[in-house]
Amino acid sequence: MRITYDESVAKAPAQIERSYGGVATLIQPEEEEVEKRHLLTSAQMAHFVKYGFVKIEDLVPDELNRAVLEDQRRSIGTKWDFWYLSENVRKVFELPQVKGILQSFVGDAPIYDHSFLHRVRGHKTVAQDWHSDSMPDARPFAFDVQAFYWSHDAPLEMGPTMLLPGSHLRKVNIASIGRYKNFVGQLQLPIKAGTITFFHHGLWHCAQPNSTDTDRFVFKLRLRPNQEQIRLFNMDGYDSPEVMQILQKGIIPGATYWQGDFDRLDSVQHARFWRYVTGDNKVDIAFETALTRMHLQ
Ligand SMILES: O=C(O)CCC(=O)C(=O)O
Ligand SMILES: [Fe+2]
User: Fold this and answer.
1) Bridging pattern class, strands 216-224 and 187-188
2) Phi-psi region of 194 (alpha: psi -120 to 50; beta: other; left: phi over 0)
3) Which of 162, 167, 219, 220 to mutate to test the pocket of ligand 1 (most atoms within 8 A of CB)?
4) What pLDDT is stored for residue 294 in this prediction?
5) What average pLDDT is seen over the chain?
6) 74, 84, 203, 212: which could form a disulfide with 199 (CB 3.0–4.6 Å)?
């Protein structure tokens, strides 16, 4: 898996590095085949399809977390440039276990879309407005992935990202939902250093206030696919009862059923999305197997 750069969207690190006079040393990574054990499992992909995110802990070793945090505290470059100027943050996305997951979403030649270093200062009492990061998106089921990497622990009082599980296929435009303060079913998960939470680009979310003395950072990398996103993950057991249970009944303990009766319509969307990522046009996880009843392929 190697990230590629579309010159009309964003320059590659090597070019940026030249224009900055060689601030960071660019490692030209070897392209290695991702091992199957590093791919996302069917259960993890099912979680992503149902909820629009999957949180994976212990991906990044402590030493690298500390090195990135040091770069973040020194705030090298601007927030848009952090990717280019922190060799350490690029190393995170070169780890085989991270590349395997990214490849499971967007294939082995994803295109860099943008990245951003978010900082919520200690004692900041204001939350970010609810929003989705999508651009005008004409694709029915193809998706970009947004990797939110945490270099330090972020307990709830430090304001880790709030999200609305299952909102990802309800396309809204940027901050058009910003007038709302709280949603039934919203979820804020405490974070351990070394975690990456992978978001579907349509997921509704917002940063939260930080009541501690310490600044809180999260680094976001957005990649778009360069191919159809079919059968890219470890498909073992994708039609097993355990995976069907995640897709149809859910897995987040105590999750609120915020969709009400619209849940049935969402189940149809999830069913189509599951067909897209599995490439199986017969599998039907919709409420009362709606796709099959409608003879939809
Ligand atoms: O800082 C956060 O928790 C969220 C940042 C955010 O909205 C984004 O990177 O898209
Ligand atoms: Fe965002």
Assistant:
1) unpaired
2) left
3) 220
4) 87
5) 91
6) 203
Alpha-carbon span 78 to 116, nearest angstrom: 9
Q: Which two tokens stand for residue 33?
A: 């085949």
- Cα angle at 129 between 123 and 131, to 5 degrees? 135
CA distance 107 to 87: 23
Torsion on CA atoms 149, 9, 53, 2, rounded to nearest 10: -70
Ligand 2 center to 144 CA (angstroms):
13
Q: Which residue has the higher pLDDT, 235 or 14?
A: 235
Q: What integer pLDDT is reported at residue 25 of this predicted model? A: 41
Q: Which domains does the chain have, with CATH numbers?
A: 13-224 (2.60.120.620), 241-293 (no CATH)
133 Cα to the center of ligand 2, angstroms: 5
What pTM was estimated for this model as a whole? Answer: 0.94
Q: For residue 179, what are its two tokens?
A: 């007038």
> Encoding tokens for residue 292?
């099959």
First to last CA, the chain: 31
Whole-Å CA distances, 274 to 69, 79, 229, 271, 278:
36, 35, 11, 5, 6
pLDDT digits (tens, 9 = 90+) for 7-26: 888 878 877 766 655 444 44
Ligand 1 atom with the shortest distance to the CA of 131: 7
User: DSSP assignment, residue 232?
Assistant: -
